[in-house]
Amino acid sequence: IPETGDPGSRFPLEGALDLDIGSNSVQAYSISPENEFFTVSYGSRSNGDKYVQLVLEKPLDREEQAEMDFSLIAVDGGSPPRSGTTQIYIVVLDVNDNAPVFTQDRYTVQVLENAPEGSVVLTLLATDEDAGVNGDITYSFSQAVGQSDSAFEIDSTSGEIKLTKTLDFEAARTHELSVRARDGGGLSAICKVLVEVLDVNDNAPELVVSSFSSPLPENSAPGTVVALFTVRDRDAGANGKVSCALEDQLFFSLRPAYKNYYELVTVKLILVKSLDREKQAVHNLILTATDGGSPVKSGSTTMQIVVLDGNDNAPEFTQSMYKVTVREDVAVGSRVLQVTATDRDEGPNAEVKYS
């Protein structure tokens, strides 16, 4: 009997035979034990034919009870009455009246961004209380957000979701997948899968210079801002926490500005000038940014600062005093002496005139 049978449905049975006649023949039928699903109906038709029928009183549900059995008892009208019994065995036939059901409506799973292609992200499970084809489930992606569908594939039979390529935390921190489970009768269910991508330290810090002053006058005051730059790391957490340092430098230092910005400034020295072109005309600085990941990654940039000359040196003669003897009859216009003076500055600041 199909489980879709409507209450009131009737199923004919073979009646009992009794060799007696009249009131001694079969008079009534009953079932034992009594149940809530079936009753027995019997009687005679207008043409005199007798009938026995099972009457369905309540809808069947194969998922609750797939089989049942009871006795059909025929009783005659004799004294004492005599009876006969036969067994009725009911098999409830399945119809596709149940849709698949996932164990959860929403799944959340975490995956490292460096998980290799082919890694299993999650294995979904949906169940269907129907039997046979009606209970066979296939899985597929129903809908994907953004480019998620290109990064994942699902096994239609096992419900296993795998990576088709490595993920990138910096490109997308989450992927939302919509998975459909469909049974053989066409009924389906949908669940959401949220894949959270976990960051690994796969990005080195970067230094981005916003402004840079070079050449720099050698008479620049201590604290003069030479460069403004920012450090950034696309990773998250400790992997993206960056510290910045200036390698082996006496004349310049780093000063935090705001957030992840730094200033490169000149420093004040006690015994010597902060900048002296005549001693060092070019300064090559190496700025290094280091993150807090494991293993540590770092990035660096080089700045070349040219010191611009200031007129901070007076000309110097080759001698502080020249002594020359001149004859009194020397002709006017004769060369008596040639003196030389030099200036450590450059350009116009080093052009010497004599008087």
Textual characterization of the structure:
The chain is mostly beta strands and 355 residues long. The protein folds into four domains: 9-91, Cadherins (Immunoglobulin-like, Sandwich), CATH 2.60.40.60; 101-198, Sandwich (Immunoglobulin-like), CATH 2.60.40; 206-308, Sandwich (Immunoglobulin-like); 314-354, no CATH class. 0% of the residues lie in helices and 43% in strands. The chain contains no helices and 25 strands. The protein has strands at residues 10-13, 26-32, 38-44, 50-56, 67-76, 83-91, 101-102, 106-112, 120-123, 126-127, 137-144, 152-154, 160-163, 174-183, 188-198, 206-212, 216-217, 225-232, 242-246, 252-256, 261-266, 282-291, 298-308, 316-317, 341-342. The strands form eight sheets. A four-stranded mixed beta sheet has the order 8-15-14-11, with no helix packed on it. A four-stranded antiparallel beta sheet has the order 16-18-21-20, with no helix packed on it. It starts with 9 loop residues before the first strand and ends in a 13-residue tail after the last strand. The model has no long low-confidence stretch (mean pLDDT 90).
